[in-house]
Design a protein that fits this description.
Elements (H helix, E strand, L loop, with lengths): L1 H7 L7 E3 L15 H10 L5 E3 L6 H8 L15 H15 L23 H5 L4 E8 L11 E8 L2 H14 L3 E3 L6 E3 L4 E6 L8 E3 L4 E5 L4 H10 L2 E2 L11 H7 L2 E2 L2 E2 L4 E7 L5 E5 L18 E8 L1 E2 L2 H18 L19 H7 L6 E2 L2 E3 L7 E3 L5 H19 L8 E3 L14
Parallel strand pairs: 1-2, 4-7, 5-7, 6-20
Antiparallel strand pairs: 3-4, 8-9, 9-15, 10-16, 11-12, 13-14, 13-15, 17-18, 18-19
The chain binds flavin-adenine dinucleotide.
Length: 427
């Protein structure tokens, strides 16, 4: 009876997160657990009910989900109130995030790779938001680089397609970005249109057959969490990778245990002619940190995954363990863009950099992390050219000592082709 009452008690909440049940001295009641209570809520029609993996990681998970103005209530007889305290602590920490602070001074005007019509004019009347001369420090985890000529956040597929079609006909560059967690933006900024699929492309829809339809801007971590909460497993190996699902698809983001490309059935987006098209996952040639998506010039708007039903509690625990392992072995709470170099076949870029004595080496405010040598961190006052200088210094040292040429994993943006060392990929 209590379970039924529980199931009916949360109509007023937009989202319900059911934490694990821990017995307090009494014997556990067989069949009564968090999943059963969540199912009860769903059976009474609640649309957004999740089962949390571990109480310890709940604040971390909530911090990624809540937005300004949300009201979060913790209810329970045990220590769940601590989650509220931990969440406040985290959010206060996030509030000092410079991405939300006033823009840093802009040193140089954005270079134009735009044609006669300005990039801003091209999108001015389209459905969405256009941010002219927008600091890319706010759009990237490195928090580096100059401004974008215009960042366009379309609010419909039609607006995204029209922006791209107009840009093509005017010879204006369009660059799609996601969470900016794999980008190095040049100090002079980025010309043309930087297209950022925003909240209009953040929806995640779960079908009964295991297909998941994700807007390109949906955070990868959120897709994974919501999938596990519904009993769909397969994404746990991606735990702890920041950024959007769109960016993850382009990069074929992953770890040694799995990559997102293995789960992608199809992608939908706008091609180089401004047409909305769909491409099957099998035609995207997913390989280690690469896919055909950039080569096809596709701006992704939707990604379709396929997942399997499985043990949600085990999946949640695995995700938690992976995140904790990463926190121990990689620098976090610093400005970085993840691994800078791809691992050469059969080798680890981090190990090669470490063996070359590069940990702690710096160029200005750019420094090789002491925790993991394949992470470069940006300290206060660091510029993109200092990161670029350090990248070259690292590549040269590894070449001199091991005769191995490291290939770049992070994506340079806004650099002129002549400025990039020949071995740098992307851009
Ligand atoms: C601390 C840290 C840890 C990381 N760990 C990992 C890891 O373990 N494994 C891993 O693979 N990566 C890792 N990364 C790198 C990065 O998080 C991933 O590559 C991520 O998937 C990039 O997603 P994003 O949304 O931030 O993409 P962005 O950085 O914004 O873009 C990446 C590329 O995708 C393109 N792109 C983005 N969105 C679209 C779109 N909608 N349409 C077309 N093109 C688009 C961009 O032009 C760019 O070329 C890490 C990064 C950080 C900061």
């Amino acid at each position: 009876m209590l379970a039924d009452e529980f199931g009916r008690s949360f109509y007023g909440a937009n989202t319900v997160v059911v934490a694990p049940i821990y017995p307090a001295g009494e014997q556990p009641i067989s069949g009564v657990d968090a999943s059963m209570l969540a199912d009860k809520c769903r059976s009474y029609g609640h649309k957004d009910v999740h089962v949390a993996g571990e109480l310890d990681s709940l604040a971390e998970e909530l911090a990624d989900q809540v937005s300004s103005g949300d009201l979060v209530i913790t209810l329970g007889a045990g220590s769940v109130w601590r989650v509220g305290e931990a969440l406040l602590h985290r959010l206060r920490g996030h509030a000092s995030d410079t991405r939300r602070a006033p823009p840093e001074p802009i040193e140089a005007p954005a270079v134009g790779r735009s044609g006669a019509t300005s990039a801003a004019d091209l999108v001015a009347d389209l459905e969405g938001e256009a941010k002219v001369d927008h600091p890319m420090t706010r759009c990237t985890s490195f928090r580096l680089g100059g401004p974008a000529e215009v960042v366009f956040i379309p609010s419909s597929e039609a607006a995204a397609a029209e922006a791209i079609a107009r840009a093509i006909s005017e010879g204006v560059t369009v660059t799609a970005i996601g969470g900016g967690t794999n980008l190095l933006v040049a100090d002079r900024g980025v010309g043309g249109i930087v297209l950022s699929p925003g909240p209009a492309f953040g929806e995640i829809r779960f079908e009964n057959d295991g297909r998941v339809l994700c807007g390109a801007a949906a955070p990868l971590a959120k897709v994974m969490r919501q999938a596990i909460a519904r009993g769909w497993v397969g994404m746990e190996t991606l735990a702890g990778i920041p950024g959007s699902i769109g960016g993850a698809a382009v990069m074929n983001a992953g770890t040694r245990d799995g990559e997102i490309g293995e789960l992608i059935v199809a992608v939908r987006g706008v091609d180089r002619t401004g047409r909305l098209i769909e491409v099957a996952g099998k035609d995207l040639n997913f390989a280690y940190r690469s896919s055909q998506i950039s080569k096809l010039g596709l701006t992704l708007l939707e990604i379709e995954l396929t997942l399997e039903q499985g043990d949600a509690v085990a999946a949640s625990r695995r995700a938690y363990e992976i995140r904790h392992y990463r926190n121990r072995t990689q620098p976090h709470k610093v400005r970085s863009a993840g691994s800078v170099f791809k691992n050469p076949p059969g080798e680890s870029a981090g190990r090669l950099l470490d063996r070359s004595g590069l940990k702690g080496v710096n160029v200005g405010g750019a420094r090789v992390s002491e925790v993991h040598a394949n992470f470069l961190t940006a300290e206060k006052g660091c510029s993109a050219s200092e990161i670029a200088g350090l990248i070259e210094r690292c590549r040269q040292a590894v070449w001199d000592q091991h005769q191995i040429g490291l290939e770049l994993e992070i994506q340079p943006l806004g650099f002129d082709p002549g400025e990039l060392p020949p071995a740098w990929s992307g851009g």
